[in-house]
Design brief:
This protein is α/β, with parallel strands linked by helices and 409 residues long. The chain has 21 helices and twelve strands. It folds into two domains: 103 residues, no CATH class; 208 residues, 3-Layer(aba) Sandwich (Rossmann fold), CATH 3.40.50. Strands 5, 6, 7, 8, 9, 10, 11 and 12 form an eight-stranded mixed sheet that branches. It has a four-stranded antiparallel sheet with strand order 2-3-1-4.
Length: 409
């Protein structure tokens, strides 16, 4: 994190583009690097780490800097997050000294938590001030790099030995490896061979919660780029059929090369026109298991996507909850009697989690709630958060996840 004038100037310009929140921060950063291909690896690392530190701690850094200008925020991040000295900041030394001297003790709780006021208020109502603060602090930390081993190709111990990287087995997922640092993995021989995929441990556990078996017909109803689809296919040992459904043709296209690397041939992508797509309706009452990892605020992934807390407003949550309810009801129609349904989000808000699950259960008495703890125990996954799954960065080291499971009567 050496702040040369050129690097700081690039960080300022890149951050200015991120702070208009016109598109996801990772896309905006990638676009900036494409426009400045001369930047070296260390330059890109400095720029990205500085910019994402500002996105994580925007409110407290604005208070410390006394400004919302990108340059001042970048300097504040370098001092308060990365611990650089005023001397190291050269022409910005005076600002750096003021930032360093700022105590921050009298800041409002939402500013200390680096959350929008509305989000802090909803979290304190849901969890209490102490727990909300603990959740907020955990979401400010960068996420670790987790891998899922394709157990159809090799064991986890074999993968750890062959990676040649410092990593340990994840505590909950039987297929997970947590790497130290952020090594480049997408050109590693194991990755290119489909033996490992990048996937947060919490996301991996959703596959074990659905627990598809050989020969079954299964749907990943909001498949996206197919990370969970591939995890489900691994558990099915290539036998049976998985429908990977999503409204985004672009994201589903990313699944094909990933499935080919993994040696998976039983995945069938379906681009949906909406919740009532006729191709999905033709499968009504025929499937054994359906996973609904619903589109959500993503607030459980703020360690990775800190811009989400500034891009989503309070009004969006009600719209998302209504959409989640529609999607869940549409997906439920695909199940045969005795089939298993799992509803999941990577949100920390009850409006997207418990409220949606409760509304669904009240309107669909034919679906019997199942204990997530019992389902995971049957898969030898030792995490017990009660009937519904709640995963937290500060408790489990994963992204924030919620899940509820049902069986169709």
């Amino acid at each position: 994190m050496t702040p040369t004038p050129a690097r700081l100037a690039h960080a300022e310009r890149a951050l200015a583009g991120l702070l208009d929140f016109a598109r996801p921060a990772d896309q905006a950063m990638s676009a900036y690097f494409r426009r400045h291909r001369h930047l070296g690896r260390q330059d890109r690392g400095f720029i990205a780490e500085t910019a994402f530190a500002v996105l994580r701690r925007r409110r407290s850094l604005e208070a410390a800097a006394g400004s919302a200008a990108p340059r001042e925020l970048a300097v504040a991040a370098l001092v308060r997050v990365f611990g650089l000295s005023a001397r190291a900041l050269g022409s910005d030394a005076d600002l750096a000294a003021r930032v360093k001297a700022f105590s921050g003790r009298d800041l409002p709780p939402a500013v200390q938590a680096d959350l929008p006021d509305w989000l802090w208020e909803r979290m304190t109502v849901a969890y209490g001030t102490h727990e909300a603060a603990a959740i907020a602090r955990s979401l400010l930390e960068p996420a670790p790099l987790d891998l899922r081993v394709n157990l159809a190709k090799l064991t986890r111990d074999e993968a750890i030995a062959q990676l040649g990287l410092e990593g340990t087995a994840t505590p909950y997922s039987p297929a997970g490896i947590r790497l130290k640092g952020k090594p480049a993995i997408n050109r590693h021989p194991l990755f290119l061979a489909g033996a490992v995929e990048v996937q947060d441990e919490g996301s991996q556990l959703l596959a074990y919660l659905l627990a598809p078996r050989r020969g079954e017909m299964v749907a990943d109803f909001c498949a996206g780029a197919g990370g969970k689809t591939l995890a489900l296919a691994m558990l099915m040992h290539g036998a049976g059929r998985i429908y990977a459904m999503d409204v985004s043709a672009r994201r589903l296209r990313e699944l094909a090369p990933r499935a080919a690397r993994a040696g998976i041939s039983n995945v069938h992508p379906i681009v949906l026109a909406g919740e009532g797509d006729p191709r999905a309706r033709r499968l009504a009452g025929k499937l054994d298991r359906v996973l609904v990892d619903a589109p959500c605020s993503g607030f459980g992934t703020l360690r990775r996507n800190p811009d989400l807390k500034w891009r989503h407003g309070a009004a969006a949550i009600a719209e998302l909850a209504a959409k989640q309810g529609r999607i869940l009801s549409a997906a439920a129609r695909l199940l045969k009697p005795g089939g298993r349904l799992v509803y999941a989000t990577c949100s920390v808000l009850p409006e997207e989690n418990e409220a949606v699950a409760d509304t669904f259960a009240a309107g669909h008495p034919e679906f019997k709630p199942l204990s997530c703890a019992a389902l995971l125990a049957a898969q030898r996954v030792a995490v017990d958060t009660g009937e519904r799954l709640h995963l937290w960065p500060h408790r489990h080291g994963t992204d924030g996840f919620f899940a509820a499971a049902y069986e169709r009567g």
